[in-house]
Design goal:
Helices cover 33% and strands 31% of the residues. By secondary structure, it is of the alpha/beta class.
Length: 248
């Protein structure tokens, strides 16, 4: 059973969550229901939960501010939020989970199942990554947490030179010379890194535009990256690529 605390300033939201969990998630045991960050801190210290379902936007103390007050948190978190592009981006980059309001029962169930199957030893580092990224609101995010075969890896975004598709996996080529395989498709990585100077130059390659050493003209041309890799530009992407390259 997952010992769970619900935290949301709106009582109607916690009541709805409680009702959904009791109906569809027999593996969840609700230890406390709180309507403020301060109540949440007391409940977490008292009950030492496995999981906290936490509203991001709360008056007085937001969900993020509440987490900062807890020393060495060792519980999983599922955030709940109305759509906020920048908060969601920071959460995603930290490989943490969130649910958009209004919460849909089957999405809540899926999020709970993910927590059940997780064997996470990196939760503290995920929170640190989250707080670091939140400081960069409305600017490119600094660090990303990505799932690999052995667990989560944490990578500075500026250190990623390019990414290569490998079926359902993706290989990252880093500034240090390391190669890292992650258990996400190239399309997933592209979505995650959107807005951070990355461009899908070919169906199997995503490049960090700041690491382009030169562009060589040709039928479609190719780029030489800072690690010496030559990567072809897809013909149908050449015009858009050159436009973006010109605006770097």
């Amino acid at each position: 059973m997952l010992s769970t605390i619900l935290i949301d300033d709106q009582e109607i939201c916690t009541e709805m969550l409680k009702d959904m969990l009791e109906k569809d998630n027999s593996e969840v045991s609700i230890s406390a229901v709180c309507n403020s960050g301060k109540e949440g801190i007391k409940a977490i210290r008292k009950h030492e939960p496995d999981l906290v379902i936490l509203d991001v936007e709360m008056p007085g103390m937001s969900g993020f501010e509440m987490l900062r007050e807890i020393k060495d948190p060792d519980f999983e978190v599922i955030f709940t939020t109305a759509f906020d592009k920048y908060s969601i981006e920071a959460i995603r980059f930290s490989a943490l989970d969130y649910l958009l309001k209004p919460i849909i029962p089957h999405e809540l169930k899926a999020a709970i199942e993910k927590v059940e199957h997780k064997q996470n030893k990196n939760i503290n580092r995920q929170f640190k990554t989250l707080f670091k990224n939140l400081q960069e609101t409305r600017r490119p995010v600094n660090q990303v947490a990505l799932p690999a075969l052995e667990g989560l890896i944490f990578v500075n975004v500026v250190d990623i030179i390019h990414c290569k598709s490998d079926s359902n996996y993706t290989t990252l080529f880093l500034k240090s010379g390391e190669k890292m395989m992650v258990t996400k498709t190239l399309k997933d990585i592209e979505g995650l890194l959107e807005g951070n100077n990355f461009y899908r130059i070919h169906h199997s390659h995503l490049i960090n535009m700041i690491h382009i050493k030169k562009y060589v003209r040709g039928n479609a041309g190719y780029v030489v990256m800072s690690d010496g890799a030559d990567i072809n530009v897809a013909r149908n992407r050449k015009e858009e690529f050159l436009t973006q390259f010109a605006h770097l």
